[in-house]
Specification:
The chain is α/β, with parallel strands linked by helices. The chain folds into two domains: 204 residues, 3-Layer(aba) Sandwich (Rossmann fold); 183 residues, Rossmann fold (3-Layer(aba) Sandwich), CATH 3.40.50. It contains 15 helices and 14 strands. The strands form three sheets. The chain has a six-stranded parallel sheet with strand order 5-3-1-6-7-8, with helices on both faces. Strand 9, helix 9 and strand 10 form a beta-alpha-beta unit. Helix 4 packs across helix 5 and helix 12 crosses helix 14. This is Glycosyltransferase. InterPro entries: Glyco_trans_1, Glyco_trans_4-like_N, Glycosyltransferase_grp1. GO terms for molecular function: glycosyltransferase activity.
Length: 393
């Protein structure tokens, strides 16, 4: 079976879930190829792996040599860009004809494939995986119906959480063509430590891109509130990741008077991230709906932290409650509620024994519902089933 993954950039450090899914397919004997807008080899050394350079199906740029024009054309806006890019997508879509199944990550790529399907002979079933911004932004501006052609041409829509599933069905997708498929983590590769802080200083950590939806602003404000209310609590906070809000968050920490306890480390190699996670007690990710409607799916970083035994603190946001149940597998606060978030952090500091019980339950939850080996088994089964429908047709 030949499967094509359609993505924007390949490989991408911010989309390790795509790499995990491709790896799972390769391990199950599926011939994988990639069609993308650009490759990042030599640019992101943390994932510059021979496996991705040597995929059995190869790596092709969608527009071929004309892909060099994409940055210039992207300066156009609205209908002009849409018409030009769609015409080029259709013209160069022949490279998709050799595949048995097409997997498009993110709704925009599903839309590109579906439009091409409508205009030329592409018989491979299309699976579109919806992750976050591709649902949240059009929900925000009332344009989720833009995916109508995806619903018509595609065989299956796979949103990463139930919240998105409901939204897609409301937008016109047939219910029997929409199924939740979680992203996951390899729990066997993540050692469970069970972070016991006891009398030690409370070590908190966040690993994310510093964008609005990650809510790091509210983590900083909550920690300042905890320090004001309970100055005897000894704590430190490490933030790993870059992004457009890095400087603003450094400035906010200084304004709140907590910069001496907060370390902004920027992007770090995966090995260092794993080491720092193993040294921390609490993982903080107070996600929020961004001003443009951007949403989380279910953050893989939360899964990794829960599998490792950290106490996680997050928010009632998008699909996060499908992973974290307040008081049972972690702690949740309402979005943007600094006081409630601060109370959760104080509770953690005061209840180390209860946090150990949360950690055990959290690990079990990830093993049962978010283990990538099980999820990749199910995904491969789905691909084989869809490929069989093409053969039958």
């Amino acid at each position: 079976m030949k499967v094509c993954f359609v993505v924007d950039k390949f490989p991408s450090l911010s989309e390790t879930f795509v790499l995990d899914q491709i790896s799972g397919c390769l391990e199950r004997g599926i011939e994988v190829g990639v069609v993308c807008n650009e490759t990042t080899f030599g640019k992101e050394r943390n994932i510059d792996d021979p496996r991705w350079r040597n995929l059995p199906g190869g790596i092709e740029q969608w527009w071929g040599a004309l892909g060099l024009l994409r940055p210039s054309l992207r300066r156009w806006s609205g209908r002009l860009w849409d018409k030009a890019s769609t015409a080029l997508d259709i013209a160069f879509a022949g490279k998709l004809e050799k595949y048995d199944v097409i997997v498009a990550h993110f709704g925009n790529n599903g839309l590109r494939v579906a439009r091409a399907m409508k205009q030329r002979r592409l018989t491979a079933p299309l699976v579109t995986i919806f992750h976050g911004h591709d649902v949240g932004a059009p929900m925000h501006d009332g344009t989720l119906s833009r995916y109508e052609v995806v619903f018509q041409q595609g065989a299956l829509q796979l949103p990463v959480n139930g919240f998105f599933r409901d939204a897609l069905i409301k937008a016109g997708a047939e219910a029997d063509t929409v199924a939740v498929h979680h992203m996951g983590v390899n729990t066997e590769a993540i050692g469970f430590r069970g972070a016991k802080h006891g009398s030690d200083p409370l070590a908190l950590i966040s690993v994310c891109r510093l964008t609005e939806k990650k809510g790091i602003e509210f983590a900083l404000r909550a920690l300042a509130g905890m320090q004001a209310a309970r100055p005897e609590i000894d704590w430190s906070y490490t933030v790993i990741g870059g992004g457009e809000l890095l400087d603003a968050m450094k400035q906010l920490a200084a304004e709140l008077g907590i910069s001496g306890r907060v370390a902004f480390l920027g992007p770090r190699p995966h090995a260092e991230v794993k080491q720092r996670l193993s040294e921390a007690h609490v993982f903080v990710l107070p996600s929020v709906r961004a001003g443009d409607g951007d949403l989380e799916g279910i953050p893989v970083a939360l899964m990794e932290a829960m599998a490792a035994g950290l106490t996680v603190v997050s928010t009632y946001h998008s699909g996060i409650p499908e992973l974290v149940e307040d008081g049972k597998t972690g702690l949740l606060a309402p979005e943007r509620d600094v006081a409630a978030l601060a109370q959760k952090l104080v509770w953690i500091a005061d209840n180390p024994g209860a946090c150990e019980s949360l950690a055990v339950a959290a690990r079990r939850k990830v093993e049962e519902d978010f283990d990538s080996v099980r999820l990749n088994d199910a995904f491969a089964d789905t691909l084989y089933r869809l490929a069989a429908t093409k053969v039958a047709a």
